[in-house]
Amino acid sequence: MTELLKVHGSQNSFFILDQTTLANELSDDQLRQLAKQVTDHQKGLLGGADGLLVVNHPTREGASAQMRVINADGSEASMCGNGLRTVARYLAERDHRTTFKVDTMNSNLQVRQADNLAASVPAFAVEISPVHFDKAALPFDHLGHDRLLGTMVPELAPQLTFSAIAVPNPHLISFVSQAVIEGPLLGELGAYLNGDNPYFSDGVNVNFAQILGPNKLFVRTFERGVGFTNACGTGMSATTLAFVLLHANQAAFNEPITVYNPGGMVKTIVHFAAGHYWIELIGNATFTHRITVGEAALHAGHVTADNSTINPTGEQEAYEQFIHQLPSFNLSVKD
Ligand SMILES: N[C@@H](CCC[C@H](N)C(=O)O)C(=O)O
After folding, report:
1. Where does CATH 3.10.310.10 sit in the chain?
2. 54, 205, 221: which to mutate for ligand 1, most atoms within 8 A of CB?
3. I need a labelling partner for 163 at 20 to 30 A (CA). Which of 30, 105, 170, 240 fits?
4. pLDDT digits (tens, 9 = 90+) for 172-225
5. What separation in Å is there between the alpha carbon of 198 and the centre of ligand 1?
């Protein structure tokens, strides 16, 4: 028997599978199949999720473990900020460490245990990097620019400006009004740019942000490989970098920025050091269920309430108390 964990960061929800505990690792096809099956919002496990986070032995020196990110549609992403916080907590508890590095697709990233966000709401801080702006890194094409930073892009939407930032997964960001954030455009643009389109050949995570005041944002994201999510950690990190670069009168480097999202709230701190941008993302790492399941069910890509034992952790109640005192934006996606 082995254990799957159901977890979330700002209610961006995942299953964690630690392959180092298995007798035999799953093949990439089996991981894709398992991700699609358990995350399905209708027929999946526990109401589904946004992705599967796979823990492996590290491939780079200096890291405690490797994290792979499989989106709900089975595609693989280079990074996941909310997911990394939950994997950081999992590894901190597994290895009895509070600060260490996690091997992700493009680099080792520093993580650390942070102060609880509230009573019984554990939090972790993770490094979001490397950052790229060039069109080859996203990638994007046919938009008449080599990079987008507060740039008018009539091909995407006539009235809005856009920034394109890879952290290193690709993000498109626009600062918009409350009416636009609540309206249909984000869903339409997200679906278009993640389907067959001439601009973003690998798809892109689309983030709309509302400036609420100095150092304060609300961000809503349409995620590549997923659709609308309650929050996207790399999206909020990339958006705060754009906030600092484009709205210097309202946000600054090295200062905490509060980012509300439909699932809760995180803090980010944007840094520029040795010629490179990086962002620290700080937020909850909540475990909602422990699922005990036989390895054969994992290999078959078929984990259900009938062939597993599901134990709620009780942490969701504390998380809900925490978000109850936050401003309400009424845009959450239910599991
Ligand atoms: N939810 C994540 C991002 C997950 C990957 C994304 N869908 C992609 O394909 O790039 C986060 O918290 O960063």
Report:
1. 2-130+284-324, 151-270
2. 205
3. 105
4. 999 999 999 999 999 999 999 999 999 999 999 999 999 999 999 999 999 999
5. 22
Catalytic residue among 26, 79, 80, 125: 80
3-state SS string over the chain? CEEEEEEEECCEEEEEEEHHHCCCCCCHHHHHHHHHHHHCCCCCHHHCCCEEEEEECCCCCCCCEEEEEEECCCCEECCCHHHHHHHHHHHHHHHCCCEEEEECCCCEEEEEEEEEEECCEEEEEEEECCCECCCCCCCCCCCCCCCCCCEECCCCCCCCEEEEEECCCEEEEEECCHHHHHCCHHHHHHHHHCCCCCCCCCCCEEEEEEEEECCEEEEEEEECCCEEECCCHHHHHHHHHHHHHHCCCCCCCCCEEEEEECCEEEEEEEEEECCEEEEEEEEECEEEEEEEECHHHHHHCCCCCCCEEEEECCHHHHHHHHHHCCCCCCCCCCC
ipTM over 0.95: yes
What fold is seen in the domain 151-270? Diaminopimelate Epimerase; Chain A, domain 1 (3.10.310)
CA of 120 to the centre of ligand 1 (A): 26
CATH architecture of the domain with range 2-130+284-324: Roll (3.10)
The whole-model pTM stands at 0.97
Give 254-308 pLDDT, tens digit per residue. Answer: 999 999 999 999 999 999 999 999 999 999 999 999 999 999 999 999 999 999 9
